[in-house]
Specification:
By secondary structure, this protein is mainly alpha-helical. The protein has one domain: RNA polymerase sigma factor, region 2, helix turn helix motif (Rna Polymerase Sigma Factor, Chain: A, Orthogonal Bundle). It is globular and about 50 Å long.
């Protein structure tokens, strides 16, 4: 969405608050700006919790619908991005609780086991593996983290959320966030940690087709329901 409106503004020029006001004033189409702005973040955060691409997409869609319906209740006391992320986190955690697929306390994670079936396992992965293979190995290692550590790791390292924002989204103390991030880094070993800042952003690729799919589905459901976020 690079088009301009009647004022000559592009979506990138609008603040979240300005977009919210437009939607509440009846411009439902402007909600697409919000979705395209936060699709990648919400997908990665949800994926870090539910551990499944398709379910993460469902989480993001439901989070947007919940946010749309409750838009009038957004009071501005927190950043809109934090408010929206927390909705997605709560939806993802609710699904985990319902499915009971993820234990509250996971077994001890062994990075070597998580990476054992990598084709580069018998070589020096850090030096010989291609960037694609390295990304696959890193993704496997992150997926192998205990769920309570993986969620923090994805939010802090992959999405660069602050400690404060991560704590608010996950209903943790900032001290707990720091401890969990430290434990996650330890589990991923030093050689992965040295590369994770660059490579982690490639772990949960949010391609254009997935982004378009979520936007289209949410807009369709909003229009079927009618009204605005204040309805």
């Amino acid at each position: 969405m690079n088009r301009t409106d009647g004022t000559g503004e592009t979506p990138a020029m609008l603040s979240d608050a300005e977009v919210v006001c437009r939607v509440l004033d009846g411009d439902v189409g402007s909600f697409e700006i919000i979705m395209r702005r936060y699709n990648q973040r919400l997908f990665r955060v949800a994926r870090g919790i539910v551990h499944d691409d398709a379910e993460a997409e469902d989480v993001v869609q439901e989070a947007y619908l919940s946010a749309f319906r409750g838009l009038a209740q957004f009071n501005g006391l927190a950043l809109f991005s934090t408010w929206l992320t927390k909705i997605a986190v709560n939806e993802a955690l609710a699904r985990v609780r319902r499915s009971k697929r993820l234990p509250l306390v996971a077994a001890t994670f062994d990075p070597e086991t998580a990476m054992s079936d990598s084709p580069a396992n018998h070589h020096d992965a850090a030096e010989e593996a291609s960037q694609q293979e390295l990304g696959r190995v890193l993704a496997k290692a992150v997926d192998g983290l205990p769920p309570e550590l993986r969620a923090v790791f994805v939010m802090r390292v992959v999405e660069n959320l602050s400690t404060e924002e991560t704590a608010e989204c996950l209903n943790l103390t900032e001290a707990n966030v720091k401890v969990r991030l430290h434990r996650a880094r330890e589990l991923l070993r030093t050689w992965i940690d040295d590369r994770i800042g660059v490579e982690a952003r490639k772990l949960f690729q949010f391609d254009g087709r997935r982004c378009d799919r979520i936007v289209d589905r949410v807009i369709e459901r909003i229009r079927r329901g009618g009204g605005t976020g204040g309805a």
